[in-house]
Specification:
Blueprint lengths: L1 E2 L15 H6 L4 H9 L14 H7 L10 E2 L2 H14 L2 H14 L8 H16 L7 H4 L2 H4 L7 H7 L3 H16 L6 H15 L4 H12 L7 H8 L1 H16 L1
Parallel strand pairs: 1-2
Helix pairs in contact: 2-4, 5-6, 10-11, 10-14, 11-13, 12-14
């Protein structure tokens, strides 16, 4: 018997129950097969991530338990994240693309011209992703300018709006002077300005992240800015400065 987290019989009230529902939620078939194989069975050596070949080779009825097994989606999500981290970039790209298309971020006719950039984005987001949906839900600001800014982030990182606007303008001008808008150059410019202002780099990094993405979390700021590109970053900083001064 497969049980829900509350140890009762698994049912629809526990969430998705059909395999296709889990596919649509961003779970990989390899991870799901691995997870289901370990419901009520164990290879006996503590391993939790097993390939199909390993499961076939290791399976025995002696390893099957008599008790009901809890369907722990948190564990499935963790296991899915491991599989995501190990997929070759091109294979992962094929899995993520339908979620980007469904969100309206990418159109099929644009793929040839954007593939290299999308692969870089994929690698930037991969480290934090647990499900394929994470590549869409956490990526909107890479495709569209943020429409608003996280309210809690404003309270924490934009407390002094005038001072924040002044610092962002200084950073904006510093970034505008860069010939090479790569991760190293962006980081050097940001940390150099922070040192000149006599503040910690974090007091520039967090307000800038909020200005450019509308969020308070995500991949490394310098990698993010480099991938977004100079024109986009400057435009978003200008908009945030206008918002702060408004």
């Amino acid at each position: 018997m497969i049980l829900g987290p509350d140890k009762s019989k698994l049912s629809k009230r526990h969430g998705a129950t059909a395999l296709l529902d889990y596919r649509d939620k961003g779970y990989l078939p390899e991870a799901m097969a691995n997870f289901l194989a370990l419901l009520g069975w164990s290879p006996g050596d503590g391993r939790e991530k097993l390939s199909k070949e390993e499961m076939i080779e290791e399976f025995s009825l002696e390893g099957v338990g008599k008790r009901g097994s809890v369907f722990d989606e948190a564990k499935l999500e963790w296991l899915n994240g491991l599989y995501i981290k190990e997929l070759p970039p091109e294979h992962l790209f094929d899995r993520v693309l339908p979620f980007w298309e469904r969100s309206g971020f990418v159109r099929p006719e644009e793929l040839d011209g954007r593939r290299d950039w999308l692969l870089k984005l994929l690698e930037l987001l991969r480290e934090r992703a647990k499900k394929l949906t994470d590549f869409a839900e956490g990526a909107e600001y890479f495709f569209r300018d943020p429409e608003d800014y996280d309210p809690q982030g404003q309270k924490k990182h934009w407390k002094d709006r005038r001072q924040t606007a002044e610092r962002l303008r200084l950073l904006r001008d510093r970034l505008a002077e860069l010939e090479d808008f790569d991760e190293t150059s962006v980081e050097s410019a940001t940390r150099g300005l922070a040192e000149e202002l006599g503040i910690s780099a974090a007091k520039l990094i967090h307000p800038t992240r909020l200005a450019v993405s509308g969020r308070t979390f995500g991949p490394g700021l310098f990698e993010m800015l480099a991938l977004l590109g100079k024109e986009t970053v400057l435009r978003r900083l200008d908009r945030a400065i206008e918002f702060l001064e408004g």
